[in-house]
Amino acid sequence: MREHEKKGELSERILEYLDTVCGQIRWKEARAGVREEMTDHILSQKEAFLAEGKEEAEAEVLAVEEMGDGLSVGLELDRIHRPLPQWQLMIPVFLLLAAGVVCRVFVDGMAPFSLSVLLPVLAAAVLFFAGYFLDYTAIFRRSKWIVAAAVLILAGTLIFSENHLGQAYGRIFSVFYTASYLGLLLPLALLAVLALVRGKGVRGFGLTVAAAAAGMIYLILCGSFSFVLLFAVAAWALFWMAVSADWFALGKEKGRKWFLLLTGAAVILGVLFLLLPGRTRLLWAVGRMTGDETESGFLFSLVGRFWQNSQWVGHGTYPEGNWGRILTEVTEEFGYSHDILLAQLAYMLGKAAVVALLAVFLFFFLWSFRLIRRQTSLPGRMTAACIWLVLFYETVVFFAFNLGFLLVSATALPLVSYGNTALLLNAFLMGLLLSVFRRSKEVRESSFSVI
Amino acid sequence: MAQEKNGAQISLLLLKLLEEKDMYGYEMIETLASRSEELFRLKAGTLYPLLHSMEKEGWVTAYEEPADGRMRKYYRLTEDGKHQLAEQREKWERYAGTIDRVLKGGACCAGA
């Protein structure tokens, strides 16, 4: 439609009619689709009248008349084209934000109305709504800019990051952040790469593999195996969805074969990465679960003690001896990393609190999974699936870690655990996920065209 | 109420058309007009709100394809749409059968 308008093929009469109809539709993002469809209809009708032997001007007048009254058509369409607000998912999001505050107050012992409690929640809510109202199709339309920005940011954080205990930290003025948390956004950058190489055949496939490999290397350099795994899972799923839909125009069979080869190669490289050099990574991870409780196995024992001494409802009991003293120090004096937040929450408020949290997450993931399956546009489905996987991975790993499975380190529990970097990025991702769902009836193939 | 009934009947006809093949709006109007000997010639202003409602309900899904140098929006019947078609068809047959029986003198006199 825009092409016709640019070329000036549409007369004033037709443009006026289209303006009248679309002017009634309050949701601006729905207008382009309606306008395109109406234009096609008017032009088809006009061609039919011309074929019947009518003059150009008469054919046009009749074609517009056939459409019906523009004002009432527009009002009727306005009633139908409304964003889908997704209250069912917004409620769990705010319950999780509230759970985060509860944890800060009861686990970290912070004052509920202090700035350091309220400010991050407020910032997270703002970022959630920023993602919610953002038109996610921009990831595809502005993919060149997104890829360029991602390359600059990743290179910049690598060059300027500071290394502490094997982890890379970036700094914005005096605020430090863990560089590997950018891994939460990397799958979206890979999505932008996919948008750029759509239909580009072998070259497109190769470029995407190179981009995924670059993302992996970045996260390895940042020192977080957990984020490497997170990105690998999301990239694998994106590749699978792309190849299944013949995204690269390689042919479905060939695409699937290449995908399987790629998967095999990635698994072999992953195993080598774990075993070399000197199996230190694997031994360290296993040691956390099998080591002596006063040394490498301390965290495992601490998590175990929290659960063993928790009640279903209410504060847990202090055991006799050394562990009683340790639990007192951890809960009442020094605190501990939010990586074992759930074990601490079970101890401070009762296991029921953790079960309730699990129920909220379960509802969120099941409901959103159902919506992802209903997405009719492939780019929309890919975007939602990619965000969903990132959030799901974080949640599963966090729960597993807090139940004593320490082979893969916890990253964050979306919206509940703090570091603030993870809180803010996850809030944005959740908003963006809902943005996909609220626009799902309005996006068209052309919504995703690279500008 | 009458208008609602009318909308339901038209949506039944549209679902039936889409059961046969994917179609775009203008094509639906022409096909419906020709099959009904011009009795049902819908205005675009009636058709599109109905189609878009059906899309929102998940009875049809839409995709775009280039045609005559412009993008054309095609509609396809979904599984939900097939169930809806069967349901609406059954309702219509019951309704039409009842009208028919009444016109023929009512249930008490059928066959008399």
Descriptive terms for the model:
heterodimer, A: 451 residues, mainly alpha, 2 domains, 3 strands, 70% helix, elongated, B: 112 residues, alpha+beta, Arc Repressor Mutant, subunit A, three-stranded antiparallel β-sheet, 4 helices
Produce the secondary structure layout.
The complex is a heterodimer of chains A (451) and B (112).
Chain A: H1 2-7, H2 12-23, H3 28-51, H4 56-67, H5 70-80, H6 87-106, H7 115-133, H8 138-141, H9 143-160, E1 162-164, E2 167-172, E3 175-178, H10 186-196, H11 201-222, H12 225-244, H13 252-275, H14 280-290, H15 298-308, H16 322-334, H17 341-349, H18 351-374, H19 378-402, H20 420-438
Antiparallel strand pairs in A: 1-2, 2-3
Helix pairs in contact in A: 2-3, 2-5, 3-4, 6-7, 6-18, 7-20, 9-10, 10-11, 10-12, 11-12, 12-13, 12-19, 15-17, 17-18, 18-19, 19-20
Chain B: H1 2-20, E1 23-24, H2 25-35, H3 44-57, E2 60-67, E3 70-77, H4 79-103
Mean pLDDT of chain B: 87
Q: What count of helical segments of chain B does DSSP give?
A: 4
- Main structural class of chain A: mainly alpha
Number of strands of chain B: 3
Largest interface: A-B, 34 and 26 residues
CATH class descriptor of chain B: Mainly Alpha
Largest sheet of chain B: 3 strands, antiparallel
Q: Please provide the ordered H/E string of secondary-structure elements of chain B.
A: HEHHEEH
User: What percent of the residues of chain A sit in helical stretches (DSSP H or I)?
Assistant: 55-70%
